[in-house]
Amino acid sequence: MLMPAMKPGVLYITYDGVLEPLGDSQVVSYLERLAIGASIALLSFEKDVDLNDEPRVAAMSRRLSEKNIAWVRLKYHKNPPVVSTALDCMLGIRHARRICRRRHVQILHARSYVPALIALGARSATGAKFLFDMRGFWVDEKVEAGHWKAGGFLYRVGKWWERRFYREADAIVSLTSAGARALPELGVATRSGVPIEVIPTCADLDRFKPAPKEPELLRALGLEGSTVIGCVGTMENWYMRSDMVAALACFARSIANMKILLVTRDDHRALRADLEAAGIPPERLVITRAMFSEMPRWIRLFDAGVFFIRPAFSKRASAATKLAEFLGCGIPVIINDGVGDSGQLVRDGGVGVVLDAVGDVAYQQALPKIRELLTDQSIHDRCRTLATQVFDLQVGVNRYEKLYRRLASGVNDANA
């Protein structure tokens, strides 16, 4: 841990709102612990729907204040595309510079690409070090998602900034080893001696831990005596929703007494229609939503969690938060291959089933392995062991603390 007398001043910039489940899990959970050894200011961009929830805003304000984290929240602008992001960047740079001047910031910690642009804009007014927490290959994600055209104007501008982020970074964080290895293919270069640390999306394993299924919750949902397989979190964007629906339908048709549980903020009516169209009767399907604070008790209801992410070059640098949360609770997973380090971790750890492909043939071929994991009495211990080794939040915090200490000391050599 950093000694109190050596506390560096840190400005943490995130374009994901901390009032959202992802921000709560992957920003606030880290900062609460990092604030023990660092003087932290947080600059976030929050969506209207979250800012309008005044009790939740007040609760988050109290929570951060209790940890001596200064929270500056700006409104996230969604439309018009590009112009709204440019506006957010300008507003972010103005507020970041103000925070740097007032708090003697030594480290600008940028979570992904838009925050990195803000950090570099603020850095010109201070001598702060730049920590590029890349989170993924954002420009390539835009192209592979169909939002930008490869070789188009936005792509070229994005690539110019990307090269600059890597070139000017004083330290870099990748979510995956696969992402770190892919940097030469990305076409970027770093300065000599700049550390590249792999810190996956971790979970608070004091919260996400094994415990018996809650009988009252099982009764309320009609899941008593059932084998529960399903999904948590979003099934949109990079998640392969139609393939996940098809897989769940296949498993439900083949596994006796199986029920599908979906805990998500996505459109419940549309999900129900999709699953019923795939042949799942209403009585075998439960769709609900939950606050992030309640997620551990919901995840413990599962016998296996399912999520498929579209494999692409940009996804080599991605890591799903839900993998850490499922494994932390001792729940095995059924996933597709080709995304970050997840396939290798699940295979090597013996904590689930990794599909080499998606489609009816692959789902049928996976059924014997799925039945095996559902009856494996030791798999829950293996899940927890792997989570403790790889995804423990405190392990991630320790690695960030090491980078903070290094940057604050001004050390920048390969042997530090």
* Overall CATH class of the largest domain: Alpha Beta
Helix/strand-derived category reads alpha/beta
Largest sheet: 7 strands, parallel
Can you name the CATH architecture of the largest domain? 3-Layer(aba) Sandwich
CATH superfamily of the largest domain: Glycogen Phosphorylase B
> Mean of the pLDDT scores?
93
- In CATH, the topology of the largest domain is named Rossmann fold
How much helix is in the residues? 40-55%
Radius of gyration: 22 Å
**Apparent shape:** globular
Low-confidence stretches: none
Walk me through what this model shows:
The protein is an alpha/beta fold and 416 residues long. It folds into two domains: 217 residues, 3-Layer(aba) Sandwich (Rossmann fold), CATH 3.40.50; 176 residues, Rossmann fold. Helix content is 46%, strand content 16%. It is built from 18 helices and 13 strands. The strands form two sheets. It has a seven-stranded parallel β-sheet with strand order 3-2-1-4-5-6-7, sandwiched between helices. Strands 10-9-8-11-12-13 form a six-stranded parallel β-sheet, with helices on both faces. Helix 4 packs across helix 5 and helix 11 packs across helix 16. The radius of gyration is 22 Å and the shape is globular. The model has no long low-confidence stretch (mean pLDDT 93).
